[in-house]
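Notebook entry, structure prediction.
Reason for the run: the old model in the group folder had no record of what sequence produced it. Starting over properly, with the input documented here first.
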Amino acid sequence: MMKRPKLFLTVGLPCTGKTTAARRIEVEEEALRLTKDEWVKALYGHENPTSASDVIEGRLIQIGLRALELGNNVVIDYGLWGRDERSALRQAAADRGAAVELLYFELTPAEQRTRRDRRQAEAPHTTWPMSDEELAGWAAAIEIPTRGELDGSEPVDDPPAGFATWDEWREYRWPPSVEG
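New structure, fully documented this time:
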């Protein structure tokens, strides 16, 4: 009898421990780890173009959903700041018979800056420069998961207005190609 696959979603701002946790989950849960920053760095080096980032996220999600269909655990390792993003992925996992574990990572701004500075000094090839102003702006933009999202007790929201299904919204949010 095949074990029900699980989708792990890492949620949090930069430098809060998402990738460290994703690497642990990859080993402990025998999960396919899909870390967007590694792909963007491999393809674009010092650049981090938003349009390509969205496409890479979407492609990794497609790979992850296929892996769930094949019975594999998956960990999506990027911020997932928006509730709509998390709802779309929770629904996609449910549609494939997979469980979901949502993990939220939070630090004080001071600790986040300390980690950013350490990462920039010790492993600049793994990151991009981030100013204090950017960190503060991102902190204001994230939709912090509710307790019900975190423990799975809250049902998935309906898709936003203008979208009949979460699949349709996912294709809009994560386009299949970079518009040229």
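Summary: The beta strands are 6-12, 31-35, 73-77, 99-105.
The old model has been moved to the deprecated folder.
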